[in-house]
Amino acid sequence: MSWLRALKETARSGLSVERRRLEPAVAARGALGLALVVGVSLALFGPAVAASSAFGAFQAAIATFQRSYRPRPTLALASGASLAVSTFLGYLTASHPVPFLILLGLWTFLAGLAWAVGPTVGIIAASNVAIMLVTVTLPTSVATAAGHAAMIAVGGLVQAALIVTMPVRRWGAQRDALADALAAVADYARRLRHDPTASFDPVPLMTARSAAAVTPRQARRRPAELHGARGLAERIRPVLASLADPAVGAPAEGPERDRVRELLAAAGELLDAAAHAIRHGEPVDLPPAAVAALRTPDTGAILTGAPRRAATRLAALLGDVVETAEPRTETAAEARSRPTLVRLVPVALGRMRAELRHESPILRHAIRVTAVACAGYLIGTALPLGHGYWAPMASVMVMRPDFSQTYARSVARFGGTLVGVTLASGIVQAAHPGAYGSAALAVVCAFGMYLLMRTGYAASQVFVAAYVVFLLGMAGEGLSQTIRDRVLLTLLGGVLAMLAYAVYPAWETPRLRGRLADWLVADGRYAASVVAHYADPAGPSCPDVREALLGTRAARIGWQEGLARATHEPVRHRGLSHAAADDAEHALAQLGRVAMLLEAHLPERGAPPVPEAAALAEALRRSTERGAKAVRERKAPRWDDLRATVDAWSAGEGAPDHFLLRKGAPLLLEALDDLTTALTETSRVKD
């Protein structure tokens, strides 16, 4: 993709507005907390302290809107406390340009590295740096700076208290994640009726797994219906696939296929009912027709062999899902553990330290954002525009570790700031609302931002820019700065951010082959783990198979996220065209699907072992590991070990007396051959 086209695509993305479900009650709660903090501090301490406390409450509320399954009060407290520390340290050096620049560089570098912990921590850290640039201009002494910092922390405390005393849809994010996972499996069941080899996107299941991890405090309060259904959905998915696939399930046409379609439809309806009950905290309303379809004795008369076993297991698992969705008891020991914020500190430091290598995109982002923030501060201070912090503030807020988000947000930031600053400055200059009037307008803008922040960055930036103008106007700051000056400084910050990525990029495109190789290795380990348990039966619940499956999903998601980021990069494909990437993705998805079909029929503990499966598992491991090395080196991957095993079985040499293994081994090799074709076909050299 050319630079011109890339800029055009990212600009369109940044200015787009998405249709998302609004949460007015949550937005109103955040605005109420802000209003309480501003009103009390304005009456007791004056406009300057009120502005500081307002920034603390504003940032704390924004932190609770981030995609995180941690307790929202904890996020608000952590955000307010970290911003208070940032502001106080910033004020101590604000009157000395060189020390302040050093502090700004250090703080920004750490904020850039914070993305290694996750996007929520990265966004909060970046916001702390941006707001610090504004709040350090408000105090007049060290004592007042300490007071301002304390009021910022109080702002976070108030928001946390409101979340506790005025809860809005408790456990709503966790309910939605689990319901989305069940709904995704339900949709998969319906698609299998028409496409027996349909693919499944594991993202909803991975999201539900992340949501299921709880802190000790959450474990004591979690609703019982949020426990257990995710694991059942995980176990249902391979059973659905094995029931529908003609290779190991019912024939493609005939009475057996018709019966399978009825069972798949019933499974979809029951899973949807369970998802609805969990999402809304209501009893499960079972569709009578679906229940009858699963309980009819005709299934045993029509289906035989593997399809019959899959149908029986499906009915049992669906019954467990319905039972789990109803209120029941659980113990805290049954919950997946999520570390508290205190215990997360050494983990976070370890992740940040691991990114201190030249090829790391996180380290490159930290270096870029540090250089841009310092350069923007120096340029903004040198220009005769006043309040030069608008430039570095814009840069820090828009910069992200990847190209598309940085450029899209730069365009959105400028557009939103242009509109917001123009409107707010016009109101201030025309109406002269005064301290209390400006405070009221700031609260209204905050409500608008909270309400629309998930619909698009440009829309939210209109309210953010207006919010800053009204707060500075309330404190008597920035009244002399014109609309043109603020817009020019924001434009300067956005341009610096975009130039930094062009000069010191961290392109995703050249890393795509590495991500594809990681997925291949993970798929191979998963398939090998499944096959190995035919030689050593341990029942359906095998920890090593489970861990290998999670590794496969993580690698697949990493590939898909990398491919999405690379789509809009102005970089050539470097040996992996878009068409080749699509075909390679399909091949590896098929490899994982065949392994999933074999997993659905793992022999029970104590069943007769199949010794030949051990040789197939070892051949799979060796072949995929060597193939991954070839993919990274841009060579044609070969599967000699696996091919030798499959060919020997086809010739009757050591073939196992097991239908699924004899059928599954050639399917695994076929998927890997498709990967080789996708990566070596000469017609795909040009995209």
Structural commentary:
The model is unreliable at 328-334 and 682-687 (pLDDT under 50). The chain has 687 residues and is mostly helical. It has a two-stranded parallel sheet with strand order 1-2. It contains 28 helices and two strands.
The total tally of domains equals 3
Q: N-to-C SSE series? A: HHHHHHHHHEHHHHHHEHHHHHHHHHHHHH
Quick one: biggest sheet? 2 strands, parallel
Q: Which structural class fits the helix and strand makeup? A: mainly alpha
End-to-end C-alpha gap: 10 Å
How much of the sequence lies in strands comes to under 5%
Count helical runs.
28
Which spans of ≥5 residues are poorly predicted at pLDDT below 50? 328-334, 682-687
Strand order of the largest sheet: 1-2
Q: Assign an overall shape.
A: globular
Rg from Cα: 29 Å
Give the tally of β-strands: 2
**Whole-number average pLDDT?**
87
Q: Summarize the amount of helix as a percent range.
A: over 70%
